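User: Before I run my own analysis I want an independent prediction to cross-check against. Here's the chain; please return only the structure tokens and, at the end, one sentence I can use as a sanity check.
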Amino acid sequence: MGDIIQLLPDSVANQIAAGEVVQRPASVVKELMENSIDAGATKIQIVLKNVGKSQIQVIDNGKGMSPRDARMAFERHATSKIATAQDLFNIRTMGFRGEALASIASVAEVEVRTKRIEDELGTYLFIADSELKRQESIQCNNGTNLLVKNLFYTVPARRKFLKSDGTELRNITTEFLRVALTSPQVAFTLTNNGTELYNFPAAGLRQRLVNAFGKMINARLIPINCETSIVSITGFTCTPQHAKKSYGEQFFFVNNRFMKHSFFHKAVQEAYSGLIAPEMLPSYFLYFTVDPLTIDVNIHPTKTEIKFQDETAIFQIILASIKEALGKFNITPTIDFDTEGKVDIPLSEEYGATPKVPHITYNPDYNPFNYRSSISRNDSDFERPPASRPVISSELSRGEAVPAGWEKLFQGLAESKQDQQTEIPGMTEKQDERSTVTFLQLKGRYIITAMPAGLMFIDQKRAHERVLFEHYCTSLEQSRVQGQKSLFPETIEFSPEDYLLVKDLLEDLALLGFELAEEEEKRFVLHATPPDLSYAQGEAVLLDLIEHYKNTEHSIREKMKENLALSMAKAASLSYNTPLDTGEMSKLFEALWACKCSNYTAEGRPIVHILQNDEIHRWF
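Assistant: Structure tokens:
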């Protein structure tokens, strides 16, 4: 039997390596931006077509490459930063793997135009499928212009697994922001199909954050500055009011490289303990400076997960520095344990003197219900007869004279209270007043009622979510919901990707009752909200709807109405710990059983559970 082990051709090896380095268009954008920063560029332009599937072009004004360097850059493990294995632990710049350009050229067509300042002519390269097709000297600007076309044309199977355009664009903008936030001194622009998404001028870190996340974030930034022998931490965290339910504004950087670190994220969460709800996420932009010898960046192919030598100590430093910043800017509540809950009573002029008890004059026979309005208006309050003065409640408690017939005052009070029930949005108005069904609310979460088979437990939030879901589905299918106008419209500023998403969803949001008008770039004015919501909830529900919609993958357009209805129902449904009276529980019960599917939510979670009589009997 002959030998069966053989070396793979370089083109195949590059395609295998591309599986780690080039996972999607966002990976190409990240690698090329980091190369431009390492080249000393002060201005970087990224131009996309079809969210990078057709074309990714990165133009910089860096130092450029010589003809030989331009050719060698596309060889595997070609790098200018590593000569020995020890150099791996001393790298402070961005990309260094030496496989990025070779991997990109193995799955796409690449054109390079590059020129150094001291050269008269630049260099042009055309590489496809890891083969150099053309090389010549040309006239071009200083710096590097790198064009990637037809990404994954050599591996069509991988192209089929790319997500929708919206999802791929969000991945690109995420990588773009991660790189742009490491170098605020560099100007960046990002364009897709001729639409400018970001335009960052060279500025300081605070201005870069404002340009990236909107003007509203400026007033919510809290500076962090902590110097220790282990690590130096700078950057910003945000006020608790800026916390959100979804990820997106949580950034860690170590030696100007973006990283993910769940352990350090817990430290930030712990610093905000008691200031935000457990499900909320604080926004932060923290930059760590450490000795490169104390970290290992090679534990993950994308270099986003980094191992630290002393993570426990850094955890405590993060916790302390954020708590100090929150306290310095009076974000955390202050408690004086010495005077909390005490009344400040000044001392008597004569120390130890017994204070005098004030004398109160009153008429115990006074009856306010027999008060005669014929008293002259000219009578002074100080000259009224004693019979016109009120009875002191302390005397009633001692069993003193109480006017007869006072019980009639409270007759019918209980009946009138039952009639004043708060309506729950989305619930049917039908209610049988003669019904003898009894409802009980448990822990502000479950509705309990008796039935022949046993006890029925209903999750009130999920039940209301199901009712609203079918209500909105019907509204979207039949006609447009008339929104509730506001006297004071609210202006909402969106990130570029959210702005594009809202523009695509304007017609569908209008069907739900949201009336949005575009005021200027990245801003909309909210003029009306669905009638089931109070206007105070309108902005929060809209933002929750967009976040839920963004996280919906696959064929979003095919299930547009269902996704919108589900997002709206989840955002507008009753929250737990909402007290309900008997009438409200009865209405929710009837509305639930009028639904097409009463036992499960639209996401398949159970709504109803029946505790059987037999199981109850076994307890005893």
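Sanity check: The first strand starts at residue 43 and ends at 49.
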